[in-house]
Amino acid sequence: MTAAQEAVDLLIQAAGSWQFDDAFNGLRDREWMALRFLARANRFSRTPSALAQFVGTTRATASQTVKRLEDKGYLQRRNSDQDKRSVILDVTPRGEKLLLSDPITQLVDAIASLERGANNFRDSLRQILEQLDARRDRHHADFCRKCIFLSEAASSPASRRRPEYTCRFFRANVDASEIDLLCFNFERRESGAFPD
Ligand code: SF4
């Protein structure tokens, strides 16, 4: 048996960290996945269609999940400032509080304690995803910090409130607090000007 096959067998068993039959703290696994994604996505990807893409479901099923999370007070929707027809989904303080008991935290802790370091594991996973994307003609969400469209905004002595970054894809300001969030419009740059 190859190491690659063994790795897949082990990965399938690790999936129990995010896939389960019964509800945990009142949410099904897909609802946890949705809440988790919306807490980690930037404002351009906190949409029902990006959520459907992340969870791997239809837009209609994602909308039902959003409705259930809204009914429980974990999510709220608002219209986008740039396009009033677009909806942005925000995790509420109640949702943030629930995420403190996210069942996937055990997996995060296990990865953080890897002897060879979490960075190596993350980089290997990113390489795997990029290969899968190329074969399936799809695109995964990744972190704004490493995106080819991110550029540092020129500092302006006239205004201290000027944003530190801009997105050349959306032609919008990006706050420093947003560059470590997920985006589905991400395009990887070859050399990273921004450190880990
Ligand atoms: S710079 Fe890239 S990752 Fe960041 S918001 Fe723009 S498209 Fe998304």
Question: Could you describe the 3D structure shown?
Answer:
- This protein has 196 residues and is an alpha+beta fold.
- It folds into two domains: 104 residues, Orthogonal Bundle (Arc Repressor Mutant, subunit A); 70 residues, no CATH class.
- Helices cover 40% and strands 12% of the residues.
- It has a three-stranded antiparallel sheet with strand order 4-5-6, with no helix packed on it. A two-stranded antiparallel ribbon has the order 1-2.
- It is globular and about 55 Å long.
- The model has no long low-confidence stretch (mean pLDDT 90).
- Iron/sulfur cluster (SF4) binds next to loops.
Annotation keywords:
single chain, three-stranded antiparallel β-sheet, 2 domains, MarR/SlyA-like, 196 residues, binds iron/sulfur cluster, Arc Repressor Mutant, subunit A, alpha+beta, transcription, MarR family transcriptional regulator
Strand order of the largest sheet: 4-5-6
Q: Oligomerization state of this entry?
A: single chain
Number of strands: 7
Class per helix and strand makeup: alpha+beta
Largest sheet: 3 strands, antiparallel
Estimate percent helicity. 40-55%
Q: How many helices? A: 7
Average pLDDT = 90
**Which molecules other than protein and nucleic acid are bound?**
iron/sulfur cluster
Organism: Bradyrhizobium agreste
InterPro entries: HTH_MarR-typ (IPR000835), MarR/SlyA-like (IPR039422), Tscrpt_reg_MarR-type_CS (IPR023187), WH-like_DNA-bd_sf (IPR036388), WH_DNA-bd_sf (IPR036390)
Protein name: MarR family transcriptional regulator
Keywords: DNA-binding, Transcription, Transcription regulation
